[in-house]
Design goal:
single chain; 281 residues; mainly alpha
Protein backbone atom coordinates (compact mmCIF):
# COMPACT_ATOMS: atom_id res chain seq x y z
CA UNK A 1 0.00 0.00 0.00
CA UNK A 2 2.85 2.38 0.83
CA UNK A 3 4.31 1.72 -2.60
CA UNK A 4 1.01 2.71 -4.21
CA UNK A 5 0.86 5.89 -2.12
CA UNK A 6 4.42 6.78 -3.13
CA UNK A 7 3.69 6.02 -6.79
CA UNK A 8 0.54 8.15 -6.73
CA UNK A 9 2.38 10.96 -4.95
CA UNK A 10 5.21 11.04 -7.48
CA UNK A 11 2.81 10.88 -10.44
CA UNK A 12 0.68 13.66 -8.96
CA UNK A 13 3.65 15.92 -8.25
CA UNK A 14 5.02 15.41 -11.75
CA UNK A 15 1.70 16.38 -13.31
CA UNK A 16 1.24 19.24 -10.84
CA UNK A 17 4.60 20.74 -11.78
CA UNK A 18 3.66 20.82 -15.46
CA UNK A 19 0.23 22.22 -14.57
CA UNK A 20 1.87 24.98 -12.52
CA UNK A 21 4.01 26.06 -15.49
CA UNK A 22 0.97 26.05 -17.80
CA UNK A 23 -1.13 28.06 -15.32
CA UNK A 24 1.50 30.74 -14.81
CA UNK A 25 1.86 31.10 -18.58
CA UNK A 26 -1.91 31.36 -19.10
CA UNK A 27 -2.22 33.95 -16.31
CA UNK A 28 0.55 36.03 -17.84
CA UNK A 29 -0.95 35.95 -21.33
CA UNK A 30 -4.42 36.69 -19.97
CA UNK A 31 -3.14 39.79 -18.20
CA UNK A 32 -0.89 40.91 -21.02
CA UNK A 33 -3.56 40.82 -23.74
CA UNK A 34 -6.79 41.39 -21.79
CA UNK A 35 -7.46 44.85 -23.25
CA UNK A 36 -7.02 43.64 -26.82
CA UNK A 37 -9.38 40.74 -26.15
CA UNK A 38 -12.05 43.03 -24.68
CA UNK A 39 -11.79 45.44 -27.62
CA UNK A 40 -11.98 42.62 -30.17
CA UNK A 41 -15.08 40.92 -28.70
CA UNK A 42 -17.74 42.72 -30.70
CA UNK A 43 -20.45 41.53 -33.11
CA UNK A 44 -20.00 38.14 -34.75
CA UNK A 45 -16.38 38.01 -33.56
CA UNK A 46 -17.61 37.58 -30.00
CA UNK A 47 -18.22 33.86 -30.56
CA UNK A 48 -14.66 33.34 -31.75
CA UNK A 49 -13.21 35.37 -28.86
CA UNK A 50 -15.44 33.72 -26.25
CA UNK A 51 -14.72 30.22 -27.53
CA UNK A 52 -11.00 31.03 -27.58
CA UNK A 53 -11.15 32.27 -23.98
CA UNK A 54 -13.00 29.12 -23.01
CA UNK A 55 -10.54 26.75 -24.64
CA UNK A 56 -7.68 28.52 -22.86
CA UNK A 57 -6.68 26.05 -20.11
CA UNK A 58 -7.84 26.91 -16.60
CA UNK A 59 -10.43 29.29 -15.24
CA UNK A 60 -9.05 32.71 -16.23
CA UNK A 61 -10.58 32.74 -19.71
CA UNK A 62 -13.97 31.62 -18.42
CA UNK A 63 -13.94 34.26 -15.68
CA UNK A 64 -13.01 36.91 -18.26
CA UNK A 65 -15.99 35.90 -20.41
CA UNK A 66 -18.38 36.05 -17.46
CA UNK A 67 -17.05 39.52 -16.63
CA UNK A 68 -17.58 40.67 -20.22
CA UNK A 69 -21.07 39.17 -20.25
CA UNK A 70 -22.22 40.96 -17.10
CA UNK A 71 -20.78 44.21 -18.49
CA UNK A 72 -22.82 43.78 -21.67
CA UNK A 73 -19.81 43.27 -23.93
CA UNK A 74 -20.82 39.81 -25.16
CA UNK A 75 -24.15 38.01 -25.59
CA UNK A 76 -25.67 35.05 -23.77
CA UNK A 77 -24.72 32.79 -26.69
CA UNK A 78 -21.12 33.94 -26.37
CA UNK A 79 -20.98 32.88 -22.71
CA UNK A 80 -22.49 29.53 -23.76
CA UNK A 81 -19.65 29.26 -26.29
CA UNK A 82 -17.12 29.84 -23.52
CA UNK A 83 -18.58 27.20 -21.24
CA UNK A 84 -18.75 24.64 -24.03
CA UNK A 85 -15.13 25.26 -24.95
CA UNK A 86 -13.70 25.31 -21.43
CA UNK A 87 -12.67 22.25 -19.43
CA UNK A 88 -11.28 24.13 -16.46
CA UNK A 89 -8.23 22.73 -14.74
CA UNK A 90 -8.79 19.34 -16.36
CA UNK A 91 -7.29 20.95 -19.47
CA UNK A 92 -3.93 21.19 -17.74
CA UNK A 93 -4.09 17.54 -16.75
CA UNK A 94 -4.83 16.55 -20.35
CA UNK A 95 -1.93 18.63 -21.64
CA UNK A 96 0.39 17.01 -19.12
CA UNK A 97 -0.72 13.42 -19.77
CA UNK A 98 -1.62 13.25 -23.48
CA UNK A 99 -0.77 16.58 -25.17
CA UNK A 100 -1.55 15.56 -28.77
CA UNK A 101 -5.03 14.29 -27.94
CA UNK A 102 -5.57 17.30 -25.66
CA UNK A 103 -4.89 19.67 -28.56
CA UNK A 104 -7.37 17.70 -30.69
CA UNK A 105 -10.00 18.02 -27.93
CA UNK A 106 -9.34 21.76 -27.63
CA UNK A 107 -9.68 22.20 -31.38
CA UNK A 108 -13.02 20.38 -31.45
CA UNK A 109 -14.28 22.34 -28.44
CA UNK A 110 -13.24 25.63 -30.04
CA UNK A 111 -15.22 24.92 -33.21
CA UNK A 112 -18.22 23.58 -31.31
CA UNK A 113 -18.22 26.62 -29.04
CA UNK A 114 -18.37 29.02 -31.97
CA UNK A 115 -21.17 27.19 -33.78
CA UNK A 116 -23.29 26.31 -30.77
CA UNK A 117 -22.81 29.76 -29.20
CA UNK A 118 -24.24 31.34 -32.34
CA UNK A 119 -27.12 28.84 -32.31
CA UNK A 120 -27.79 29.52 -28.62
CA UNK A 121 -28.30 33.22 -29.34
CA UNK A 122 -30.80 32.36 -32.07
CA UNK A 123 -32.72 30.22 -29.55
CA UNK A 124 -32.43 32.70 -26.70
CA UNK A 125 -33.62 35.59 -28.90
CA UNK A 126 -37.06 33.95 -28.82
CA UNK A 127 -37.02 33.71 -25.02
CA UNK A 128 -37.62 36.97 -23.16
CA UNK A 129 -37.11 35.56 -19.68
CA UNK A 130 -33.31 35.71 -19.70
CA UNK A 131 -31.96 38.99 -18.39
CA UNK A 132 -28.48 40.24 -17.73
CA UNK A 133 -27.11 39.70 -14.27
CA UNK A 134 -25.26 42.07 -12.01
CA UNK A 135 -21.49 42.31 -11.98
CA UNK A 136 -19.68 39.57 -10.11
CA UNK A 137 -16.40 40.24 -8.32
CA UNK A 138 -15.94 36.79 -6.80
CA UNK A 139 -13.35 34.60 -8.53
CA UNK A 140 -12.36 37.50 -10.78
CA UNK A 141 -8.67 37.76 -11.54
CA UNK A 142 -7.87 41.28 -10.34
CA UNK A 143 -5.50 43.31 -12.50
CA UNK A 144 -4.43 46.74 -11.26
CA UNK A 145 -3.94 49.40 -13.91
CA UNK A 146 -0.32 50.14 -14.64
CA UNK A 147 0.98 47.11 -12.76
CA UNK A 148 0.61 44.43 -15.42
CA UNK A 149 4.24 44.64 -16.42
CA UNK A 150 5.69 44.85 -12.90
CA UNK A 151 7.39 41.51 -12.08
CA UNK A 152 6.88 41.92 -8.31
CA UNK A 153 3.15 42.45 -8.74
CA UNK A 154 2.76 39.50 -11.10
CA UNK A 155 4.75 37.17 -8.84
CA UNK A 156 3.00 38.24 -5.64
CA UNK A 157 -0.60 38.68 -6.76
CA UNK A 158 -0.91 36.24 -9.65
CA UNK A 159 1.68 33.50 -9.26
CA UNK A 160 1.56 33.27 -5.46
CA UNK A 161 -1.89 34.71 -4.68
CA UNK A 162 -3.78 33.13 -7.55
CA UNK A 163 -1.97 30.03 -8.85
CA UNK A 164 -0.16 28.76 -5.75
CA UNK A 165 -2.57 29.68 -2.96
CA UNK A 166 -5.87 29.39 -4.78
CA UNK A 167 -5.36 26.46 -7.14
CA UNK A 168 -2.40 24.25 -6.26
CA UNK A 169 -3.62 22.79 -2.91
CA UNK A 170 -7.06 21.88 -4.26
CA UNK A 171 -5.63 20.58 -7.53
CA UNK A 172 -3.11 18.41 -5.71
CA UNK A 173 -5.76 17.02 -3.36
CA UNK A 174 -8.12 16.02 -6.18
CA UNK A 175 -5.33 14.72 -8.37
CA UNK A 176 -3.54 12.69 -5.70
CA UNK A 177 -6.61 10.99 -4.25
CA UNK A 178 -8.09 10.28 -7.68
CA UNK A 179 -4.76 8.85 -8.82
CA UNK A 180 -4.44 6.80 -5.62
CA UNK A 181 -7.99 5.49 -5.94
CA UNK A 182 -7.41 4.35 -9.51
CA UNK A 183 -3.99 2.85 -8.71
CA UNK A 184 -5.43 0.86 -5.80
CA UNK A 185 -8.25 -0.42 -7.98
CA UNK A 186 -5.81 -1.36 -10.70
CA UNK A 187 -3.73 -3.32 -8.18
CA UNK A 188 -6.50 -5.24 -6.47
CA UNK A 189 -9.38 -5.20 -8.95
CA UNK A 190 -9.55 -5.19 -12.73
CA UNK A 191 -10.88 -1.78 -13.74
CA UNK A 192 -12.85 -3.40 -16.52
CA UNK A 193 -14.87 -5.18 -13.82
CA UNK A 194 -15.47 -1.97 -11.83
CA UNK A 195 -16.62 0.15 -14.75
CA UNK A 196 -20.13 -0.46 -16.08
CA UNK A 197 -20.17 -3.08 -18.80
CA UNK A 198 -21.92 -0.63 -21.09
CA UNK A 199 -19.92 2.42 -22.22
CA UNK A 200 -23.29 4.07 -22.71
CA UNK A 201 -23.67 4.18 -18.91
CA UNK A 202 -20.16 5.57 -18.58
CA UNK A 203 -21.06 8.26 -21.12
CA UNK A 204 -24.19 9.18 -19.18
CA UNK A 205 -22.20 9.28 -15.95
CA UNK A 206 -19.61 11.59 -17.53
CA UNK A 207 -22.34 13.94 -18.73
CA UNK A 208 -24.17 13.98 -15.40
CA UNK A 209 -21.00 14.50 -13.37
CA UNK A 210 -20.10 17.24 -15.85
CA UNK A 211 -22.89 19.34 -14.34
CA UNK A 212 -20.88 19.67 -11.10
CA UNK A 213 -19.22 23.14 -11.07
CA UNK A 214 -15.77 21.94 -10.05
CA UNK A 215 -12.83 20.49 -11.96
CA UNK A 216 -11.93 17.76 -9.48
CA UNK A 217 -14.70 15.20 -10.14
CA UNK A 218 -13.90 15.23 -13.86
CA UNK A 219 -10.28 14.22 -13.39
CA UNK A 220 -11.41 10.61 -13.13
CA UNK A 221 -12.49 10.52 -16.80
CA UNK A 222 -9.23 12.16 -17.88
CA UNK A 223 -7.23 9.55 -15.97
CA UNK A 224 -9.42 6.69 -17.21
CA UNK A 225 -8.87 7.86 -20.79
CA UNK A 226 -5.13 8.09 -20.18
CA UNK A 227 -5.21 4.46 -19.04
CA UNK A 228 -7.15 3.40 -22.13
CA UNK A 229 -10.25 2.43 -20.15
CA UNK A 230 -12.74 4.83 -21.73
CA UNK A 231 -12.95 5.96 -25.39
CA UNK A 232 -12.37 9.39 -26.85
CA UNK A 233 -16.12 10.03 -27.10
CA UNK A 234 -16.50 9.88 -23.31
CA UNK A 235 -13.58 12.26 -22.78
CA UNK A 236 -15.00 14.70 -25.34
CA UNK A 237 -18.54 14.59 -23.92
CA UNK A 238 -17.17 15.19 -20.42
CA UNK A 239 -15.10 18.12 -21.71
CA UNK A 240 -18.12 19.68 -23.44
CA UNK A 241 -20.43 19.49 -20.42
CA UNK A 242 -18.03 20.34 -17.62
CA UNK A 243 -16.51 23.79 -17.24
CA UNK A 244 -14.49 23.38 -14.06
CA UNK A 245 -15.50 26.18 -11.73
CA UNK A 246 -15.57 28.73 -14.54
CA UNK A 247 -19.34 29.05 -14.17
CA UNK A 248 -19.31 29.74 -10.41
CA UNK A 249 -19.42 33.55 -10.76
CA UNK A 250 -22.55 33.19 -12.89
CA UNK A 251 -24.07 30.69 -10.45
CA UNK A 252 -23.62 33.07 -7.53
CA UNK A 253 -25.81 35.68 -9.23
CA UNK A 254 -28.21 33.86 -11.53
CA UNK A 255 -29.18 30.25 -10.97
CA UNK A 256 -31.62 30.54 -13.87
CA UNK A 257 -28.98 31.59 -16.40
CA UNK A 258 -26.57 28.96 -15.09
CA UNK A 259 -29.24 26.29 -15.48
CA UNK A 260 -29.92 27.31 -19.10
CA UNK A 261 -26.19 27.32 -19.93
CA UNK A 262 -25.86 23.83 -18.48
CA UNK A 263 -28.86 22.66 -20.50
CA UNK A 264 -27.07 23.74 -23.68
CA UNK A 265 -23.88 22.00 -22.52
CA UNK A 266 -25.64 18.73 -21.71
CA UNK A 267 -27.59 18.76 -24.98
CA UNK A 268 -24.44 19.27 -27.03
CA UNK A 269 -22.43 16.76 -24.98
CA UNK A 270 -24.99 14.04 -25.69
CA UNK A 271 -25.52 15.10 -29.32
CA UNK A 272 -21.79 14.84 -30.03
CA UNK A 273 -20.72 12.09 -27.63
CA UNK A 274 -23.42 9.52 -28.39
CA UNK A 275 -22.88 9.26 -32.17
CA UNK A 276 -19.12 9.06 -31.69
CA UNK A 277 -19.61 6.30 -29.11
CA UNK A 278 -21.84 4.30 -31.45
CA UNK A 279 -19.23 4.77 -34.17
CA UNK A 280 -16.70 3.09 -31.89
CA UNK A 281 -14.65 6.21 -31.17
Amino acid sequence: MLALVAQSLMESLKILLMVFVFMVLVDFLGIRYRKSINDFARGAKQYVVSSFLGVTPGCVGAFASVSMYVHGTISFGAIVATMIATSGEASFIMLAMFPETALLVFGVLFVLGIGFGWLADRVISRHKGLERITRCEECKLVVHEGEEGVPEHFLKEHVYGHVIRKHMPRLFTWLFFTMLFLNVLNSYVAMEEVLPSSMLLVMLAAVLIGIIPDSGPHFVFVLLFAQGLVPFSVLLASSIVQDGHGLLPMLSHSVKNTFVIKLFNVALGLAVGMPLLFMGL
